[in-house]
Amino acid sequence: MASTTDTQPDEKSKTQEDPEYPNNLQRIIIMTAMYLILFLVNLDTNIISTAIPRITDEFHSLNDIGWYGSAYLLTACCFQLVMGKLYKLVPAKPLFLLCSGLFELGSLVCAVAPTSVAFIVGRAIAGVGTAGLSSGIMVIMFHTVPQQQRPIYQGLFGATFAVASVIGPVLGGVFTDQVTWRWCFYINLPIGAVAIAIGIWLLRLRNQELEPWASSWLGRLLQLDPIGNVVLFPSVVCLILALQWGGAQYTWGDARVVALLVVSGVLLLAFVGIQIWKQDGATVPPRIVKQRSIAASLLFTFFNGAAMMILLYYLPLWFQVVKGLSATQSGIRLLPMILPTVFGAILAGVLTSRLGYYNPFFILSSVLMPIGAGLLATLSPTSGMSEWFGYQVILGLGLGVGAQQPLTVAQTVLGKADIAIGSSVMMFFRFFGSTIFLPVGQNIFLNSLVRNLSNLPDLDAEAVTSGGATDVRNLVSAEELPMLLLDYNSALINTFYLAAAISAVTIIGSIFVEWQSVQTPIQHATASGRKSDQEPAATTV
Fold this sequence. Notes:
The chain is mainly α and about 550 residues long. The protein has helices spanning about 10-15, 25-45, 50-60, 65-85, 90-110, 115-145, 150-180, 185, 190-200, 215-225, 225-245, 255-280, 285-290, 290-320, 325-335, 335-355, 360-375, 385-405, 405-415, 420-450, 460-465, 480-505, 505-510; strands at about 520-525, 530-535.
């Protein structure tokens, strides 16, 4: 490939073109609020992992485990793209505050939920809020922090993710064991309130450039691509229902499952067709996803996110059921995965900044993750610390060095005007992968468990699958317990095999990401085809 070179604007014109930013103190306070929200979103993802077994105990809802993740991911996935579109049309401040409020409302519903269904509804509401927060934080940073200071603030994003990832499982275990799992959600309320108050008080995005609204209400509605979104939402819902029901509640050949799959496929194809038809008026402009590095990163993040969520949901089950540990102990034993994830993310960020290339970390992630997940699939009830500890370290390093790279790609190869949509599409694919494969993992787990329990003819399989995870040990005698744990272990490691398989697919995306330097300025093509000197960009090797 040829190198792309650009003419730098002179200092005078650059100064004249610089937008107006808040002063340093205001900037620090505003970005602190952003970090608080980001902390809560990442904490919400990690804190629930160690609480899930106890939640299933209270609601007698082992069958609903997949929905605890899928409900959140489903709405986050469905609304992610339209939120990216909205940030190009609506001032970021009110939209971001609205999404923060929805996230808080969802957390409150989860905290007070009297039933499993109510809990799932709360997760769905929180997911809608989360959909607008990821893109919103990126937009706010781009309009609050001058370009030369952004690497510092982006590094702090990684640190925030790291802190939430480290303390999430442990804090979830402490709340679950010492107080109640409901505090995993109550904790979001006061912290989120502080962040929202700061946003109301200080956030002023004077330099935000918005696309003009159409003059008529119909024209404004059409700007949001309602046809595309109306087609996308039921497509995702039908797919999730089919994956939840197929092989579990109904056979895969059941007319209901087949109909859901067919409808989902037809609607998804229709959505793609609508995006091609509408071009830059689409929710996902084709020119963005056709860019080679973006397309490769989308494939990578789709499978990387799915593998991560499967392991975060089912590895705590292994510790709490197979090893008989408490939620707190389970959270502590996830640290060998979480800490290397943090270390890998920070190290990859620093080295990418120094070396200028993110490609080595894509590839390293695609190698380490399937190895780590595959090794976890060798665990048994008698496995010792050296095994589950070492395997998690390998997996965590793979997760850490790769998880953030797709967003770095979006910031590198896209112009400033496309950052919101590019980030939204990237997060959509990450959520979509998790939304699809969490039900697949649940299906594999439950089917394997029911099949394995035939070894214990006196045990009612329905009592196991409809009860709580940690109640399993109380369903059999001491003589039958070892056999039950073997059966449970066998079912769980099948989900680890799934994670290993789908994480291995990420190598395809890693290979096709272009070797582009993040240190060299570039001119980004805009929707009109003009070149604009925007942000750090890439030299293609």
